[in-house]
Sequence to fold (125 residues):
Amino acid sequence: MYLLRGREVLEQEGENPQVVAEIRAGSLPADWTWAILAGLGEAVHLLEDRGVEVQALAEGSVFYTEEPVMVLFGRYLDFGTLETSLLACSARRAASRRPRRACASRPEPARLLLRSRRMHPAIAR
Fold:
């Protein structure tokens, strides 16, 4: 809701500031010191034809907590409301690269929950 409210306020004020946004993991699951970047293609696809410049690590790159994996340059109203979708594209895929290690000691219901924790925006409700 805050993304939509922010858009509404900027539109009412006639503002569309040039911004730089960094996509990064603020934390990783317990005992993970690294993860693998995945889902970049879907994230880039969401940004197509929006006038946004994207700089990113390559798909399959190892990254660490608080390391920017993608930096976006553009007008806020052109991509600001996509924040949740962009995070979901890469968070779900990055977690899926390590499911055996992440779930090895968990019972089956926890495994299913982990897999569905970050839904792709096309199926999230």
Remarks:
- The beta strands are 18-24, 35-36, 53-56, 62-63, 68-75.
- The helical segments are 2-13, 40-47, 76-79, 83-96, 99-103, 108-116.
- The chain has six helices and five strands.
- The mean pLDDT is 78.
